[in-house]
Amino acid sequence: MAQLSDKGRRIREMFDGIAPRYDLLNRLLSLGIDRRWRVFAVRQLQVPEQGRVLDIATGTGDVALEIARQTPASVQIVGEDFTQGMLVRGREKIAASPYAERIHLVNAPCEAIPHPADCFDGITIAFGIRNVVDRPAGLREMCRVLKPGGRAVILEFSHPRSRLFREIYYFYFRRLLPLIGGLLSRRSAYQYLPDSVLEFPDQQQFQEMMAAAGFVNLKSHDLTGGIVTVHVGDKPR
Predict the structure, then answer these.
(1) Is the pTM of this model over 0.85?
(2) Does residue 150 contact residue 234 with C-beta atoms inside 8 Å?
(3) Which of the following CATH numbers is that of domain 6-16+31-161+202-234: 2.60.40.420, 3.40.50.720, 3.40.50.150, 3.30.750.24?
(4) How far apart are CA 169 and CA 7, in angstroms?
(5) Cα–Cα nearest to 155, from 128, 132, 131, 126
(6) Percent of the chain beyond pLDDT 70?
């Protein structure tokens, strides 16, 4: 795997530590809505028969499994993550699913995708681009490995546009989420989550980053009042 920066190693160690209860806390802290966000994101893909999809920051495999559920049986999926602890959990889930023969897991960071150019019909990354230390490099890598006309779908926490809703959301994120996360897992990891969300670019700024990396036909879909946004971009034909 490519050499990580000090920050990258700290983030990897953090996710290794929370891997055992990662799925439980996702469901609990989002009240189960995270499943619907993933389903919507995967629906934005356009994958042909015999196609290939790369799921970056695959974690425990939720999005990879959803891609398999929504696409033809001839579609192959590669799940990539830089955290071994998450991949161990992902392998267990995938092995117990009907899609084990279609999903293959790889240990690698977004900034150094170990695949040749122009080889995937679609790319997804859910709640992972925020943790990429060099986001411009990660986005360029995503564009590089997409086939011309291929599509990237990025699901990430965002900034609600309504001022009132934003204040309620920030209170939950800053105060309640670290408390609940700390009771069931590492409090420091669930303090990192709101901090990383609050410093993440807003919808327009992130779309500009995607454009600078080479993506075209950019669209964004705010979900649940803007708690999350699905960003969509295509590689030029």
Answers:
(1) yes
(2) yes
(3) 3.40.50.150
(4) 27
(5) 126
(6) 81
